[in-house]
Amino acid sequence: MQLEQFLTQYGLWALGIGAGLEGETVTVLGGMFVHRGLFAFLPAVLAASLGSFLADQVFFALGRGFRDTAYVQKIRAKPAFKRALAVFDRHPTGFVFAFRFLYGLRTISPVAIGTTDLRASRFVLINAAAALVWGATFVTLGYFFGQAIEALFGRLHLNAVILCAVAVLVIAAWLAHTITARQRKAREQRGTPDG
């Protein structure tokens, strides 16, 4: 069954499940359904956000509950896991908020965060806020650009276009991080405290 048929047949439930399991492609497709008048905007954003939120909570719980098992220890040895933890150590709140926007780190990151000492209550709050931003972003992308994406690239290339959109978001996040880091460094050199 194709994604479009799945969404047509099962509606917002399918959007939530698809957003949690697959991610951006389903969520952008949900935005296209909003544009076509098949879904309302706010319920589509909430369904996608909830699906993403719940999936990440499950992965976090797996990391937390099984962090001492041989399987998780094996995953911890992987380079992506080590990269995720290295970024988390430097910017815990920012990383928890941004990991779902980082291609290649979306699934492994909540597991990695679950192995840290971050309080579960803090993860829930940041994860909920990030899921809402993520859901709104990709539903909106689908709403405004879905028809153009289909017209220009056809249905088969939707994943490639979404990856490009994610790359643009990652570059924007990197630029914001770089600017913030430079400003922080300049404040430290002047002896001005962060605030």
From TrEMBL:
GO CC, alphabetical: plasma membrane
Protein name: DedA family protein
All copies of domain VTT, residue ranges: 23-143
Membrane-traversing stretches: 12-34, 40-63, 123-144, 156-176
Top-rank lineage group of the source organism: Bacteria
InterPro entries: DedA_domain, VTT_dom
Keywords: Membrane, Transmembrane, Transmembrane helix
